[in-house]
Design goal:
Helix content: 25-40%
Largest sheet: 10 strands, mixed
CATH class: Alpha Beta
Order of helices and strands: HEEEHEEHEHHHHEHEHEEHH
Structural class: alpha/beta
CATH superfamily: P-loop containing nucleotide triphosphate hydrolases
Number of helices: 11
């Protein structure tokens, strides 16, 4: 269960959100944005059930993009479609185009394993392997054939990149499960970046953490965005306002006959605009706590 202090904050006063939202002047002009993802008409199905429909937006290099919206609106489903993690779910399929540097990652000749190497993922609940701290980080590089001193260097750099090295450098042989929740999540981030991905997807990475650990993860995201492109799913409105450059807001469409829920993208824009001057009334109602 998420700590109450880091749970969904849709009832937050919008003035407070406006106070902490990133300054739009920090963002590069639109014509300077180098696109990493470009989604067009994306639908995601589980069997006959359409979980997400008609999603189109882009993600630029070295930006943090937040996906927000009420529970059941397909945020995590869409996130997993960005590195073909949904392929691992029987009956799941994606329609439309998920272009990564101009190539549709769902084309038949694209290797999903290579997609996941370039596009890493950090999950909601910290999930270290039941191995040593060193072996957790070394897992991916070893699969790629790295050994010896080169492997040691990669592990050290990944742990430094995840702001964890100083805390664990004297106990690399100890179990990753012995770490605190926040440390475990940073270990999982180190494991993800050890294989040198370009993109890191984060599915509510702070929802199971206390406020101090949450702040460490948020600081870390800001520190590593110059090396990685980050897409994060979050229920925490303040978190989205603090850390992201752009925000996509989703709603849930309920089928009254079957009671099934389909996610729909309502608005995608600079985070400052989403939280201070959204174009759609539904977005304003959500970020001001009128629904959600």
């Amino acid at each position: 269960m998420a700590d109450a202090s880091v749970a969904e904050t849709t009832s937050t006063n919008p003035l407070h959100l406006h106070d902490i939202v990133r300054d739009a002047d920090q963002d590069p002009p639109a014509h300077q944005r180098e696109l990493v993802f470009d989604l067009h008409g994306v639908n995601v199905f589980y069997g006959a059930f359409k979980a997400v429909r008609d999603v189109s937006f882009d993600v630029a290099k070295h930006e943090i993009t937040a996906l927000i919206g009420p529970s059941g609106c397909g945020k995590s489903t869409l996130l997993r479609s960005l590195n073909r993690m949904n392929d691992l779910i029987p009956g799941a399929r994606v329609e439309g185009t998920v272009a990564y540097h101009g190539e549709n990652i769902y084309d038949a000749e694209i290797d999903p394993v290579e997609v996941r190497r370039r596009i890493g993922m950090v999950f909601q609940k910290p999930n270290p392997f039941p191995k040593s701290i060193f072996d957790n980080v070394a897992f991916g590089p070893r699969l790629n054939g790295v050994r010896g001193s080169a492997l040691e260097g990669i592990v050290e750099q990944a742990l430094k990149g995840a702001a964890l090295w100083d805390e664990v450098k004297g106990k690399l042989k100890e179990s990753g499960l012995s770490l605190s929740g926040g440390q475990q999540q940073r270990l999982c981030i180190a494991r993800a970046i050890a294989v040198e991905p370009e993109v890191v997807l984060m599915d509510e990475p702070c929802s199971a953490l206390d406020p101090i650990a949450t702040a460490r993860i948020e600081d870390l995201m800001q520190q590593i965005k110059d090396k990685y492109t980050i897409v994060i799913v979050t229920h925490n409105m303040q978190q989205a306002a603090r850390i992201s450059d752009r925000t996509a807001f989703f709603v849930t469409e309920v089928n009254p006959e079957s009671d099934t829920r389909t996610g729909l993208l309502v608005e995608y824009d600079e985070t400052s605009k989403i939280f201070s001057n959204p174009s759609d009334e539904r977005t304003e109602n959500y970020v001001t706590g009128r629904f959600g």
